[in-house]
Design brief:
- The protein is about 20% helix and about 15% strand.
- The strands form four sheets. A two-stranded antiparallel ribbon has the order 1-2. A two-stranded antiparallel sheet has the order 3-4. A two-stranded antiparallel ribbon has the order 5-6.
- The mean pLDDT is about 85.
- The chain starts with a strand and ends with a helix.
- The chain folds into two domains: about 50 residues, no CATH class; about 45 residues, no CATH class.
C-alpha cells in the first residue's frame, strides 16, 4: 500500500483530501500527483520507503513515440518534406526501417486530427 499525504498548495484538487504522491528518482523530491508541485518537509524515512515501494511517477506513453539517436529525446516525430524528423532537434530519424517509416507517415497524418 503506497504512502498517502495531503497537498498543502492552494488551488490543488487534493487540498483537504488524501492523494498518493510520487518521488522523482533523479532529484529525490516528492511531488503531488494532482497538481505536480513539490511537497515540502518530506522526511528522509518517507523517501526511502517510497523508493522501496517504487512509488515513482509513471512514464507517460506517447502514441507512435520514437527515440532520437541524436538528442536522446523520446517523442512523436514530425513529417517534414516526406521525411520523419525529431521534433526537438529536427534531425531525420535514419535508424528506422522503410516499412516502419511508411506506416508511421500514414498514422501521423491521422493521429492528431479530431474525429
Amino acid at each position: 500500500m503506497p504512502f498517502a499525504m495531503f497537498c498543502q498548495h492552494k488551488g490543488c484538487k487534493g487540498t483537504g483530501s488524501q492523494m498518493e504522491p510520487y518521488l522523482d528518482s533523479k532529484t529525490d523530491k516528492v511531488y503531488c500527483s494532482l497538481c505536480d508541485q513539490e511537497l515540502p518537509n518530506v522526511t528522509y524515512f518517507v523517501k526511502v520507503q517510497m523508493k522501496a515501494l517504487k512509488q515513482f511517477r509513471q512514464k507517460q506513453a506517447v502514441a507512435f513515440g520514437v527515440k532520437c539517436q541524436s538528442c536522446g529525446k523520446e517523442a512523436q516525430p514530425k513529417v517534414v518534406n516526406d521525411d520523419i524528423v525529431c521534433p526537438a532537434c529536427t534531425k531525420p530519424h535514419t535508424h528506422l526501417s522503410e516499412p516502419f517509416k511508411m506506416m508511421l507517415k500514414d498514422k501521423l497524418r491521422t493521429a492528431n486530427k479530431d474525429v
